[in-house]
Amino acid sequence: MVFNSAMDTLHPDAALIEALGGPAAVSRLLGLEGHGTQRVFNWKRRGIPPEVKLDRPDLFLPGWKVPKPPTASGSATAT
What we know:
Blueprint: H1 13-19, H2 23-30, H3 36-46, H4 50-55, H5 57-60
């Protein structure tokens, strides 16, 4: 009986990690210290945590624009 067969498959986020230069490069881009490279490597199988994607949409959510906070008048656009 094999218990880790699901860990043999890569998450779709793995392609994004590789496109950014691999786990070590992504770890450096995020400023992760200690075991950062291993942590990012694990994301290739588990997926990048949503909070990480939202913290760095420039890296992980291409084409997604961060909404501007509302102004005092209640509008999100500046005039």
